[in-house]
Amino acid sequence: MMKAVISFILTLFALQVLATPTPEEMYGAYDKEGKYRDMQEQVDKINQQIAETEKEKSDKQTMAMWAAILIGLIPLGVIGKQVISKRTWENNPAGTAKALAIGLAGAAALFAFNYGIFWLKIEYGSQFNTAVVVALVLFLVIGSIYVLRKKK
Q1: CB 68 within 8 A of CB 111
Q2: What digits encode the pLDDT tens for the residues 62-94?
């Protein structure tokens, strides 16, 4: 008997879950002018725009990363070319290792600087440009004042 009551109650709960109307069904009777449908289309459109914007931003960051990597590898490539063409490892292996280590450190620093600049440009756009221009003008003014006072 207890199993039958529990089964009956669970069946009623299951029917209640299946019988819950969707918002379209619930508001369909009251939505004579299609306001709910229009609102839902606007929400879908906004969600699609957000997804496209995030994908575009991700693509820009990936492009910036690859550009920064390529720019960062230029000094290391020049050092490697000189090492290979002049065969410096035969005469000075310690100096060659130091030069390659310095080139690698420089490449990493150049990558970090370039990627940081690219990332800030992507993230802040014209605000970043304004900040860079202000910083550059301040640097030039302070530098020129320093040079003028040093000459006197």
Answers
A1: yes
A2: 888 898 888 888 888 888 888 888 787 778 788
Q: CA nearest 76: which of 101, 112, 93, 97? A: 101
Give me the DSSP letters along 93-126. HHHHHHHHHHHHHHHHHHHHHHHHHHHHHHHHTH
Q: What is the value of pTM for the model shown?
A: 0.56
Rounded to an integer, what distance in angstroms lies between the CA atom of residue 79 and that of residue 99? 7
Decide if 62 contacts 119 (C-beta within 8 A): no
Residue with tokens 């221009």: 133
Helix or strand (DSSP H, E) at 152: none
Q: Which tokens go with 115?
A: 């990627």
- Contact (Cβ atoms closer than 8 angstroms) between residue 77 and residue 103: no
Checking if the pLDDT of 152 tops 80, the result is no
Q: How far apart are CA 124 and CA 57, in angstroms?
A: 12
| Total residue length of the chain | 152
In the structure encoding, which two tokens stand for residue 72, read together? 């960062």
Whole-number Å distance between alpha carbons of 70 and 84 = 20
CB proximity list for 110: less than 8 A, separation 6 or greater: 68, 71, 72, 74, 75
